[in-house]
Structure formats: C-alpha cells, structure tokens
Amino acid sequence: MSESPLSPHVINQIKRLDLRAQMVVRGFLQGLHASPYHGFSVQFSEHRRYSHGDDPKTIDWLAYAKTDKYYVKRFEAETNLTGYLVMDLSESMGFTHRQELTKFEYAVCLAASLCYLMVMQQDPVGLITFAEKVRAQLPARSRRGQSADVLAQLARLKPAGETDLASCIASVAAMLSHRSLVMLFTDLLGDPEPTYAALARLRHSGHDVILFHILDEAEVSFPFEGPVEFEDTETGERIPVDATGFRDDYLSGLEAFREEYRQRCSKLRIDYVPLDTSMPFDRALTEYLVNRRSRF
Q: Per residue in 23-71, pLDDT tens?
C-alpha cells in the first residue's frame, strides 16, 4: 500500500515551512477533484446555491456547466472570513515517541497549510500563541505578504513552559472584537471543566471554533510494554507504570476523554477534530472547508 503524499513522513522531507504548506494544500485540492467531494473546493466556497428571489443575471453559468446546478457568486462581504490560528506553545506539545514530527511541529505544519488556504481564498488570517498566558498576537489581515508574516512567526516558535489552557482561551475571547473563525491547536492537557467553560465563552462571544486536538501517535496507540517510567514534560514529575497491565485502562480512558470533548463541543456547536501525528493532513483541511461552507 503506497504512502499518502500528505502523510507527515512525506511532508517532513521538505524543510521550508512555506513549501510544506503549499504542497499540503495543492495535494489536498487535487485529491478533492478525484474524490466524492468533487467540486467541493476553494472555487465553490466562493459561491452559494441560487435561491428564489435572486437575480438570474447573477447566475454563474460556468459553475452550472460543471455541476448542473445553479450557483450565484457571493459578494465580497458574504465571503470574507476572518480566521485566527491559536497555537498552544506549552512544553507538552514538543513531545514525540517514534514519529518524525512532534505534536507541535505537526500543529505548525497544519496551521501553515490552513493559513495558505485562507490566503488563497483572500480571507484575513492572524496568529495568536499561548502557554501559561497569551504570548503574542499577529492581527488578521488580508494584505499581500500576510501569509509570509504568519509563516515566519510559526517557523520561529518553540514549545516551552506549562500551560493554562482555560485562562488563555478566555483571554482570546476577550481579545477578539469581531466575529472570527478560531482554529485552536492543542493537546488539551489540563482540567477539562474550566476548558469547557472557556470554550463556551468563546462561542457566546460570537466566534466559530474548530478545535484541533493533537496527540502523539504513541499517546493514541500506547505501544509500551512492561515497566515504564513516564515523565510529565511540563512539571518534570516521574511516574512508574506497568505499561502492559495499564494499557487497557489507558486506552478506554483516552476514548472516554475524547468522547466527552466530542459531546460537549457538539452542544456548543464547536467542531472537535481529534488528530494524531501519524495522520495525513487532508482530514483537518476538509474540516476547515466544511466549517467554512456551513457559515453561509
């Protein structure tokens, strides 16, 4: 079975972040044309279905020729989508067991690809980073050169320190004055209840949210056996464990953890996207396009 061209292993062969992002997005869009999502691409995110009352003169006949359906071109005010990439910089994001990309490197590549995709759609995009507090913000703009500025900052980021996830999400909600699409990249390590409350505040402030829950492949598969000592990367605490005996409990606990986030996010109308560092990047990009279309 051939390896996906969008797998982390293949993408890791490209060292420049801008070229990685371009390869991911171009490969993703090419894949859409050969999949059941044919026609569900950037081009048609700029259209909406014709409805009763629309001026027939606004019908895009080229789109009709391709799809056999009536579409009208949206006005710029309808299509503009302000997006913020919100990055967890805590030390735990720097972990990997046997994959080539750490959780943080995976998140950076994914964020860069989403930035590139948004710029292709002429959408303003910005960047917010946090760990124990919000560290930096690059305001969302659609000007030429914005993607280079975002990618340059992403390329310089290094995970370090502990995190206060709930407090930082609440800070992001307070910082953003205009309705935006918040794309949050984190491993969700921390107390879930305050995090749920902070996510609810973000939604109640009028923002749309995609939560990319990024774990290392080993955190999902738990390949360990026998006596193992695990270290908390943020606190340094060491915990000895009989991995063989602990494995079933760990995996069931992880599934329960993910399912709880899935259900709670669903109630808040937040898109919860569980990922691990062995997964091709196209799934996350599909979630972005689905979210974008559902806004209009």
A: 888 888 777 655 544 444 444 445 667 666 677 767 777 666 666 777 6
Cβ neighbour number for residue 238 with a 10 Å cutoff: 9
Give the count of beta carbons closer than 10 Å to the beta carbon of residue 90: 26
Concatenated DSSP letters of the chain? -PPPTTSHHHHTT---HHHHHHHHHHHHHHHHHTSTTTT-SHHHHTEEE--TTS-GGGB-HHHHHHHSS-EEEPPHHHH---EEEEEE--GGGG--SSSSS-HHHHHHHHHHHHHHHHHHTT--EEEEEESSSEEEEEEEE-STTHHHHHHHHHHH----S---HHHHHHHHHHH--S--EEEEEE---S-HHHHHHHHHHHHHTT-EEEEEEEE-HHHHH----SEEEEE-TTT--EEEEEHHHHHHHHHHHHHHHHHHHHHHHHHTT-EEEEEETTS-THHHHHHHHHHHHHT-
The C-alpha atoms of residue 284 and residue 24 are separated, in whole angstroms, by 11
The two three-digit tokens of residue 44, written as one number: 């048609």
Report whether 168 contacts 130 (CB < 8 A).
yes
Highest mean pLDDT among 17-21, 34-38, 56-60, 171-175: 171-175
pTM for the model: 0.82
Quick check: 85 and 186 in contact, CB under 8 A? Answer: no
